[in-house]
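The data layer described in this paper is built around a simple, fixed record for each protein. Such a record has a labelled line for the sequence and another for the backbone structure tokens. For reference, a complete record is included directly beneath this paragraph.
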Amino acid sequence: MTPIQNISIPEACHESWLQMTPVTQGRHCQQCCKTVTDFTVMSNQEIINYLSTSHDVCGRFGQEQLGSLNNRLDIENLQPNRWRRWIMLVGLLGQTMVYKAVAQTKAPQMVTQQTKPASNNIILGKVAAPDTSKKVRVSGQITDENHRPLSDVTVRIKGSNTGVLTTADGKFVLFGVKVADVLNVSYIGFITQDITLNPATKQTHNIVMKEDSHLMGEVIVTNRPSFTKRTWNKIKHIF
């Protein structure tokens, strides 16, 4: 689990990248006398490792790269660990005891059932509509426009933190996806895509990603709260 929670560039720099002087890890900006690190040539993990130990960084990202990085951080930070399991278990036990105590103090309520009149217009039969709650296995391969496989691409269910990363050959398998879900595919230096699933077809997708434009500026790294603070916040939410 990484200590970084979020990466952002609040104010984009409009200096010309091509007019800057090339240096080892990027280019030197004469305007602000700083080295602009070229993150477009790094993988997600390389960027996370770099920003975990570096401060006051000015960087260059692909337009959709920050979204891909933050998707990756969301997935990694949600991976459970041993302490987190114990905290959740203790919290659930405490919450259950509170609910039981409250339930015992409430007076029983009478429930009156009303019988609906019989109807002669009732039709019985199987509903001919797609079951959007059905969960399926979604797989596929992700390549660039030159048909080269892309590894470490983030494939997630849009609106959730459930996702996987592609393997070295660009392939992925995602279980427990509803046929009504939309897949969000993101990768450094490429345009993020939303893939709408089709309940009537086989859930295998060959996805081609296109390169995007670039974003440059001061990099702001938001670190995750300490373990003690996260534990205290969980306890406060329970009670």
Notes: The longest strand covers residues 214-223. Helices lie at 44-53, 65-77, 82-105, 227-238. The mean pLDDT is 76. The chain is about 25% helix and 30% strand.
